[in-house]
Amino acid sequence: MDKKKRAFITGITGQDGSYLADFLLDKGYEVHGLVRRSSTLNRERLEHLTQTDGENPRQGIILHYGDLTDASMLGRLIEKINPHEVYNLGAQSHVGISFEMPVYTTEVVAMGTLKLLEAIRSTGIPTRFYQASSSEMFGNAPAPQSEETPFDPASPYGVAKVAAYNFTKNYREGHGMFAVNGILFNHESPRRGENFVTRKITLSIAQILAGKKQKIVLGNLDACRDWGYAPEYVEAMWRMMQQDQPDDYVIATGETHSVREFLENAFHMAGISDWQQFLEIDSRYHRPREVHLLVGDAAKAKKELRWEPKVKFQELIHIMLSSDCTREGISLPLHSQNLSVAATGGEKINQ
Ligand code: NAP
Ligand code: GDD
Question: Could you tell me which of 129, 128, 136, 234 has the C-alpha nearest to residue 185?
Answer without folding.
Answer: 136
